[in-house]
Amino acid sequence: MTVFWVLLALAALWAILMGIWTWRDARRFALLERETVRLVLFGIIDPLRYWYYERPLRLSEDEREAWVHSLAERLGLSDIRAARCPLCESEVPNAWTVDERGRLSTLPGPIQCPGCDFRLDACRHCRYFQPAGAQRTEPFSMGLSWTHGRCTHYKTVQPVEAITTRDMARRMRERGYTQLQAPTPIMDSYIPLEHCTAFQLDPKRLRHSGIRKPGRRQRLALRVLARTTAKADAHGEAPDQTLSEEEQWLL
Which of 72, 162, 193, 199 is most buried (CB neighbours < 10 A)? Predict the structure, then answer.
C-alpha cells in the first residue's frame, strides 16, 4: 500500500510540474482559455505531442524553421527528412514524410543512398511485395525469402507453369489455358521494378533490411512539416480575386 501512495504522489508531482511548465509556455500561443487547458493537458499526458507537434505548429515560420534545423542536428542529420543507410551509414536525403493520417511514408523516389546502391524505395519495402514462398493470406509466414518474390500490383502475362504447381499447370493446359496474367516476378527485391510508380512503404518490412525507422520526435516533426507545407501550398494556390481597374471596367 505504501508503494501505491508513493507512486500516486510522484504522479501528482509530475502532473503539477509539467502542467506549470506547459502553462507558462502555452500562454504565448493560446488565445482562448480552453485552448490553453487543452495544451496543458497535452503537456501532462503526452509531453512529446506538445513540445514536438502542438507547439511547433504555433511558432512563426522563422522560429519553426530554426526549431526543425536544431532537431535535425540533435539527431545527427542535416535534414529532418533524411534517413541513415543500413549498409554504409551515409545520409539518404529526402527520404521520409508522413501521410495525411500521420503514418510514416516516403517522399517520391528515387530514394537512393549517395554512398552505395541501397534504395529505400526498393520492392522489399513496399506493401505490394509478396516474398517468395508467401501466400496472400499469410504474408509474414515462416520460411520466406525476401531477396525475391512477386509484385501484387503489376500483372504480366506468364506461362501457367510459372504461376502454379506442375499438376495444376497440366490441368489448365488440358483446358486450353497456356498463359495467364499474374503478379510480376521480382528477381532482386533490392531494386525497384522498372517504371514503377506505385511504391507504398510498409514500415514493418524495413526490419528485413536493418533500417532504423524515425523515432517519435522525428515523426512528429515530419507531421509538422507536412501540415505546414500543405497549408502553404493551399494558400499559394488560392486564386487572386482582386481585379485591376481595367479588368473591372471591362466587366
Answer: 199
Question: HSE on the CB side for 37, CA within 13 Å?
Answer: 3
Q: Are the C-beta atoms of 216 and 47 separated by less than 8 Å?
A: no
Longest Cα separation, the chain: 84
Burial level of 5, CB count in 10 A (0-12/13-18/19+)? exposed
- Give the residue among 100, 97, 88 at the shortest CA–CA distance from 121: 97
The answer for residues whose C-beta is within 8 angstroms of residue 122's C-beta and 6 or more apart is 189, 190, 191, 192, 209
Q: CA-to-CA distance for 141 and 85, rounded, in angstroms?
A: 27
> pLDDT tens for residues 190-221?
999 988 999 999 999 998 899 989 999 999 99
- The Cα–Cα gap between 136 and 237 comes to 42
CB atoms within 10 A of CB 68: 20
Bridge partners of 150, per DSSP, are 130, 185
Among 40-44, 189-193, 230-234, the minimum mean pLDDT is found in 230-234
Q: Residues near 164 by Cβ (< 8 Å), separated by ≥ 6?
A: 172
> Hey, which residues does 185 pair with through a beta bridge?
150
Helix %, strand %, coil % for the chain, to 5? 45, 15, 35
**Cell numbers placing 155:** 500483372
pTM value is 0.77
Q: Strand, helix or coil at 114? A: coil
- Cα–Cα distance measured from residue 245 to residue 251, given in angstroms and rounded to the nearest whole number: 10
